[in-house]
């Protein structure tokens, strides 16, 4: 998996340098992609067994649940021309970036729904509809 991630980094760099129409704009997207790939590599190195994997998923989904409760129940953000704006998370300042972050971690909540652990299953059942509603806003 690490070799695939390294190949993706090389691909992003080559495509950005060779094919970018606006290099400055493409470098910003490249920087975000590189940060995400480094995060995935670090998570891959950190997970040694199933218990660590479950803890990381639960921690990520607790953050996702916090964001979903803030936007859906507590009224964070504002609607500008039908788009949810003003919800500030790292890497998600605009509504498109926020939706990308939520979509990235939404399958993890679906995986927890089918877990044997009742606490994890409850977390998945609560997080999934709230996160999906945040995406659809």
Summarize the structure.
This protein is mainly alpha-helical. It has 5 helices and 2 strands.
Structural features, described:
- The chain is mainly alpha-helical and 137 residues long.
- Helix content is 75%, strand content 4%.
- The protein has helices spanning 2-19, 23-46, 50-72, 95-113, 118-136, and strands at 78-80, 83-85.
- It has a two-stranded antiparallel sheet.
- A hairpin with a 2-residue loop joins strand 1 (78-80) and strand 2 (83-85).
- The model has no long low-confidence stretch (mean pLDDT 78).
Which keywords apply here?
two-stranded antiparallel sheet, 137 residues, mainly alpha, flat, 75% helix
- The strand line-up of the biggest sheet is 1-2
Q: Any idea what the shape is?
A: flat
Radius of gyration: 17 Å
Strand content: under 5%
Number of strands: 2
**How many DSSP H or I helices?**
5
Classification by helices and strands: mainly alpha
Order of helices and strands: HHHEEHH
The major β-sheet equals: 2 strands, antiparallel
The CA-CA distance between the termini, in Å, is 34 Å
Instruction: Compute the average pLDDT.
Output: 78
Q: Which percent range fits the helix content?
A: over 70%
Residue stretches low in confidence (pLDDT < 50, at least 5 long) are none
